[in-house]
Amino acid sequence: MGANGCVPDNSATTTRLAAASDLPTPRPGALVERGVDVEAAERCARDLLLALGADPDVEGLRDTPRRVASTYAELLTPAPFTLVPSHRPGESART
């Protein structure tokens, strides 16, 4: 991780997606939502706003780091689901 805990230190010029084994485990006692260290994600969202030149402490952006962290936690960790076998046209979907 980088100095701010958000961006990996990488001197290479290529970019790669992180493997699950590359991701840090949430620290003990961290607020975890859907397997995500929400506090770390909020810090990263705040750092992103700062890097983009926005002031995260203004009224309209104050809650943005929490919203961003929560949205990505939901988006990137979908709820488990079961696939239902398909049926042939004209047949009932119920068996």
Task: Compose a concise summary of this entry.
This protein is mainly alpha-helical and 95 residues long. Helix content is 28%, strand content 4%.
CATH architecture term of one domain: Orthogonal Bundle
Biggest sheet strand order reads 1-2
Largest sheet: 2 strands, antiparallel
Counting H and I runs of at least 4 residues, what is the number of helices?
Answer: 2
| Percent range of helical residues | 25-40%
What is the level 1 CATH name of one domain? Answer: Mainly Alpha
Distance linking N and C termini: 52 Å
Taking pLDDT < 50 over at least 5 consecutive residues as the criterion, the unreliable ranges are: 9-15
What is the residue-averaged pLDDT? 73
Helix and strand run:
EEHH
Shape: elongated
Number of strands: 2
Q: Determine the CATH topology of one domain.
A: GTP Cyclohydrolase I, Chain A, domain 1
- Spatial extent as radius of gyration: 19 Å
Given the helix and strand composition, which structural class is it?
Answer: mainly alpha
> Beta-sheet strand percentage?
under 5%
